[in-house]
Each structure stands twice: as structure tokens, then as C-alpha cells.
Amino acid sequence: MTDIGKVRLRVPSTIKAGDVVQVRSLIIHPMERIERDQQGKIVQKNYNYINKVTVTYLGKTIAVFDTTQSVAENPFFSFTFKATDPGQLKVQFLDTTGGKYEGTADIKFS
Amino acid sequence: MSGRAIARRTLAWAALALLGAGCAGATPDAPDYRGIPPWASRAIPEARGEFRVAPDGKRTAVRYAGWTTRDFERFPTYAYGDQRPDPAVQRVTMPAGVVGDAQKGRALFMNRSKGPCYACHLVPGDDVWPAGSAGPDQSMIGDRKLSDQYLYQVVWDARALFPNTVMPPWGTAGVFSSQEIVDLVAYLQTLKGPVPPEKDPNRNPFTRAKPAGFGDNLDPTNNPALVLADDADAVWAARGPSGKACGDCHEGGVARAMRGVATRYPKFVKTYGRVMSIEDFLTMHAPETTGLEMRSESNDNINMSVLIKRASNGMPVRVDLESPEARAALARGKATFHRKVGERNHACADCHTPDAAAGKFLSGRLLADVRTGLTRHFPTWRTDRAEIWDMRKRFQWCMTPLGMNMLAADSIEYAELELYLTSFDNGKPLNVPGIRH
Asked: Measured between alpha carbons, how far is B299 from B388 in angstroms, rounded to an integer?
């Protein structure tokens, strides 16, 4: 899967200072499950899913999401934050195989 | 006579008149299968409808990963070279002295590897999920005092009683054995009213809410197809073995160079002497110009088709329906649409015209109405497969589970069927890529 880790971020086209802004993000990721047998032992060891999502704004981490295998394939994450200054918003996705994918959006005031 | 009845009668006469004209051969609207060029598929191996033959002669179909590999050779397909008639109607007598087991009959009614019957017919029971409404509600059929022989014949081959039925001939096709149909009849006879009150309105397909859709299909954070298909930007810019890239001839960027192009496809392409969709055309055009392969159903082909079609988003579809070639192709496409094929003896029209099952539920799936135009959002994101599908793969998917060997994705038959379907999209805006279940 060559497309794994493609990220899209969307923020509103017009933002004013102090606005609470909704961010929408989507990442292409298979989100493979951990499969266990009747005794609870892991059968499929090649599982690969996103287990951490970090949001950075103006160089500071403003939110961390711990996610589990029960999130859908090609997951969509949406959250809000308060836009105080113009600058870069970065969303980083980490998966269980060490993959690190990120998307950025420029927060500009109009 | 009411106004509506008069209108219907007038229509019937008009249809009769048309039929007469068709018989006389005076109109080009009767399907004519002469002069269709042979076509060597340029699809990826799993999309060609080919077979692998084992040393013992057993044929397995080569299809996409996870699809059935069963060979349905016994049953007619949409191939123009395959004009086998529908299987003959079988009139049968229920074997005397055989006792049906209603419990086994119910299990057969629910068996997903057979019908399943509940995909079309509602019966009581919380486990009947998701029940469909494509056929009549059978919750109280036992109250109708129908004879066992009558029900046996309807399940075996309903065409003996209703020539225009959409019910598959289960016995004739060999899906259910004689004993199994006797069990089914025994079960049907137990279905008597009153029906227990419905706890969940969504269980009943006649009261179920219609699906609401999946939101804005042009929002890249909502439609993964937009994210995946942007690989095509690199393909557009890539120089092929010939040293040329798409942009060298199609100047000004994709959005400008390709604006409006997709609204005219599928169309008859003189160079190749056949009707082609954008996807078909790319399989020939890319190797001939840039030298890059763009096989039907490959990622490059589908992504590029999305890219080209997006340049026409919002513009009305304008396929040619008037030229002699287009009219001949349309007539063949329409004949395909109405032709019964496969183990189930189904035609496209059985599910997708309002006279039959369009607008009703097949299990949990709402059957689309061909008149609303079903092609202008293709290639489309399929939420349940997590893949982008073009119209051809949709055709292949539609008929393979119904017991028909699929054709090559870039076959002329599919292109002309797509042209017929697209004729209902004419004048409506393109909106690619869509999102569907």
C-alpha cells in the first residue's frame, strides 16, 4: 500500500483571532486489527494501526489522542482549538510499526 | 375510464407501434450485433474475465482478490458472442409422499449461500436481517390457502406461472434440490397471521428509513478517493518511454486542458471503431503517446480517470446519442440492460427499473433507479470495500455474485451498457468521485 500515510487537513477559509476553529483531518491507513484466538493469544502479529495522534500549534503540543485498533480504516479525526496567533498547525499520526505521518495547515487571520 | 387509464392505453399502443417498426427493421433502434470489432483486453489480469484450467480440466475464474472463483459457464453472459437463450421454463410436479421439514425450510430461506430468500421477501423473525422488499412480503403466505404444488412450482421456476417475473428459477438453475424446495414449501405454509407487531421499524424494509448518503464527496477529509487519486498528478507530469508527458500535448494544466472532456464519454471513437469510456480510451491512448501503460482497472488508470473527470465537475453530461454509431451502440446497450443472464436469470432491468424492483430494498441495499442516472459520480469511493471503483468494476461486481461470468473490464459490451446508462445522466452535472456504500 503505497498510499499509506497520506494526510489531508482542513481548516475554515476565514479565521479571526480568538476564534474556536474546527479542524478536520483524514489519513490513509489500513488500521489492521489485532486478532486473537480463543485463549486470547495474538494470532495476527503484523497488525498496524494508529495509536497516537498529536496536535501541535505554534510549536506547542495542544492535544494528544490515544487511539486503539477499533478505529476505522482511513480514519477521520476532527477537533477544535482556539486560534490565538497566526502560525502552523501540525497533526502527527504515529502507528504501531513506527510509522510517522503528518499534515500541516497554515493558520492565517483575515 | 379514468384519465390515467386512457393515458396508459395510449402508451401501450405507442409501444406496440414501436415494436412493429422494430420488427420491420426500418429503425436503427433494434440491436444489431454485426460489425463489432474483436477486442483484445488491455485490463490487469484479474479484470479480464479469464480462466485458469487445471490439468484435470477444472476451470477456475481469475478475478479480484476475495471474489468468487466459481465458473458459471453453464449460464448465459452479456458477451455479444453469447446469444444463448434463457434456460427453458420447467413445469414440475411436486413429488408425492415426500414430507417437508418446515424448520429445515426456514434455514434454507435464511441461507446466505443459496438465495438468500430474505434478501427479497420479508418474513417474521428478529434474525431476518436485513430483510429486503424487492419481492412480495411473505409474512402471511400460509393464510392464502395456496396449494403445495403451486408454491413448489413458483420456487422451482416461477416463469411457468408469471412469464415476466424477476424471481430466479431456483429449481431449473439447480440452486435448490427437489427435497429442499419441498422443505421451503412446508416452511412457507407455516407463515400465518397475525404478524407480531414490529419492534424495530428498520427491520421492515417497507418502513425502513432510506439511506442518507455520506456527506460532501468533494471534501478531501470526507472522501478518501480524493486523497488516493491525487497520485494521478504525478502520472500526468511523468515522462514516459517516448519522452513525452500528458501536459506536452494537453497544455495549460489538467483543469484547463481536460475541461469538459469527460462530459462526452462514453463515445464512439473512430480510430478504434468502438464505444469507449475514458477508462477504455486511456488503455490505448497512454501507451500510444507517452508510452506508459495504463491498463484497465489499474490504479494509474482509475486515478487518471478521476483526475480527468474532476476537470468537468459541475458541467452537464453531454454524451452523443444521435450519431448512427451511438444509436446502434445504445440499442445494444439497452438490449443488454434488459437481457436475462446468469444462474439467477436476472437482467439489470429486474433491479433498476421502477416497474420491477428499483426503489425497493435488496437486503439492506436500496436499489437505484436507472432513470435518475447512475454513472455521473463514477469512479466512486466504495465505503464497504475501501476502494475506488469505476463503472466497469461495478458492472463486474453486480453480476458475478448473481452467477454470471464477468467480462473483461474494457469490453465493448460494458462500454455500450455504460453508454445506455449514461444516456439517463445527460444534462445532469458530473460529480466525481462520489461516495457510495
From this structure: 9
All structural domains of chain B, each given as residue ranges with its CATH number in brackets, are 30-71+210-437 (1.10.760.10), 102-189 (1.10.760.10)
A30's grid cell: 489500513
> What average pLDDT does this structure show over B421-429?
98
Residues B290 and B234: beta-carbon distance below 8 Å: no
Distance between CA A51 and CA A104 in Å, rounded? 19
* Cβ burial, residue B176 (10 Å; 0-12/13-18/19+): buried
Distance from CA of A89 to the nearest CA of B (A): 16
What three-state secondary structure class fits B412? helix
Q: Are the beta carbons of B227 and A73 separated by less than 8 Å?
A: no
Extract the runs of DSSP E, i.e. beta strands, from B186-255: none
d(CA B87, CA B75): 8
> A74 vs B224: CB contact, 8 Å cut-off?
yes
Query: Does A9 lie at the interface with B, CB-CB under 8 angstroms?
Result: yes
3-class secondary-structure state, position A100: strand
Count of pairs with CB atoms under 8 A, one residue in A, one in B: 32
Longest dimension (CA), chain B: 79
Mean pLDDT lowest among A67-71, B314-318, B428-432: A67-71
Whether A22 contacts chain B with CB within 8 A? no
* Cβ B304 vs Cβ B282: under 8 Å: yes
Contacts of B231 in chain A (CB under 8 A): 2-3
Closest to B134 in 3D by CA, of B124, B119, B123 = B119
Domains and CATH numbers, chain A: 7-33+42-104 (2.60.40.10)
- How does the average pLDDT of chain B come out, rounded? 92
pLDDT at position B1, please?
A: 41
Out of A32-41, A93-102, B217-226, B261-270, least confident range? A32-41
Chain A residues 37-66 with CB within 8 Å of chain B: none
Chain B residue numbers touching A28 (CB-CB < 8 A): 224, 227-228
Q: Which residues of A touch B227 (CB under 8 A)?
A: 3, 6, 8, 26, 28
Q: Are strands B380-382 and B434-436 parallel, antiparallel or unpaired?
A: parallel
Q: How confident is the model at residue A36 (pLDDT cuts 50, 70, 90)?
A: confident
Q: Pull the grid cell for residue B44.
A: 490487469
Question: Taking CA atoms, what residue in B is nearest to A10?
Answer: B221
ipTM above 0.95, yes or no: no
